[in-house]
Structure formats: C-alpha cells, structure tokens
Amino acid sequence: AFDYPRRADYFRDELKQFLLLTREWNISPLSPKGSFAGAMGVPQFMPTSFRRYAVDYDTDGRIDLWNAMDDVIGSVANFLSRHGWEKDRPVLVPVSLESEAARATVGDNGLSERRDYADWTAMTVTVREPAEIDPRWAAVLVQLDEIDGPAYRLGFNNFYVLTRYNRSRLYAAAVWDLAQGIRSAETPQ
After folding, report:
1. Which helix (H) or strand (E) element contains residue 71?
2. How far apart are alpha carbons 188 and 18 in whole angstroms?
C-alpha cells in the first residue's frame, strides 16, 4: 500500500477493506493469515473480493475461508456466479486453424479480440470435439504454448469469467483443464 507506486491506489484500497473486515469481525488485524499481497484463505480472495463474495455456505454463523471447505466452495461459486457464469455453457474448446487469418488475430498477450462463433467458423476455425455452440456466442481465440508448439482454443463467456478470478489466460486454462481432469477421474468408465 505504501511501497509500490504503480499499484499504490489499489493496495491502499485493499488495506482499507481489510481493516474494515477486521473491525466487522472484531478481531486484531494481525490475526488473519494471508499472502504478502493480502490474499486470504484457500481461495486467496483479496479483501475487497472477500467482503463482496465470501459466504457462510455451511450456515454456522461465520465465514471461514481458511478451514470450512463448504464456505470456500460456496464463496468461489458465488464469485463466479456474480461475474456471469453460465451453467452448461462452453468454457474453453480445442480448435484447429485451417488458415493463417485466425492465427494473425492473436495478440502478444495470447488472446484475440472477441468475435461471434460464426465469425470464427468463417475464418476456418474448427472445433475438434463435438460441442453445442450458438453461432452468436462471442469467443476469443486463445493461444497456449505447448511442447509441440502453439495450441489454440476458443474461450467463451465462462472463460472470461475465470479470468475475472485471475486475469491470466494461462491460469484460466489450467483451472479448466484441472476441472476436466477431476471430472473424468470421477466419471465411471
């Protein structure tokens, strides 16, 4: 808050929210454990996110994002829901690129601008796995660097929602891939 000029306003506001939170809980500001930047609990919520999205999902009368997994999961779900998560909609879909035109849309940050799915298919971007996708749904082309070279996926609204939790396309892709790995491990063969 006081020694990082480029983001000082942001961190001063987070410090203010943290102090308000400790006052509401009637605890010492020295008791909660968090990261060096102020992220708290299992979901690593910054104080502003904690105050906005954390919920007492187990209804025990307190929000505990350090030890109560029901509160942790409920709070992350609340965060995603309030940022526009759409149930049963695609997140990140592997695609093949038939032309250079689509590849050229990807910027230095590994993302393209948002376009309707119909626009992507017109640029010969082909979904590699069956998926029900409305031609009007907006998506970004996401480049991920893999061992064999770049791989491409279309990221829909739910991918964008994941980037509200952490702005990195790599983080959002890793979260989605991990979720798919857990789902397939739990699904009986």
Report:
1. helix 69-82
2. 44
- Neighbour count for residue 183 (Cβ, 10 Å): 9
Structure tokens at 146: 């893999």
At 159, list the tokens: 């991918």
Cβ-based neighbours of 84, under 8 Å, separated by 6 or more: 157, 160, 161
The three-state secondary structure class of 125 is strand
Q: How many distinct helices (H) and strands (E) make up the chain?
A: 7, 5
**Residue corresponding to tokens 């061992």:** 147
Encode pLDDT of 116-168 as tens digits.
999 999 999 999 987 889 999 999 999 999 999 999 999 999 999 999 999 99
Distance between CA atoms of residues 77 and 186, nearest Å: 20
Residue 187 has pLDDT above 80, yes or no: no
pLDDT in tens, 7-31: 899 999 999 999 999 999 999 999 9
**Nearest CA among 166, 173, 182, 167 for reference residue 145:** 173
Distances (CA, A) of 143 to 47, 84, 89, 105, 130: 32, 23, 21, 10, 20
Q: Is 183 helix (H, G, I), strand (E, B) or coil?
A: helix
What is the dihedral sign for C-alpha 113, 80, 187, 182? positive
For the stretch 102-106, contacts whose Cβ atoms lie closer than 8 Å and that sit 24 or more positions apart, written own/partner, are 102/141, 102/152, 103/152, 105/141, 106/141, 106/143, 106/152
Give the rounded distance of the alpha carbon of 90 from its chain centre: 14
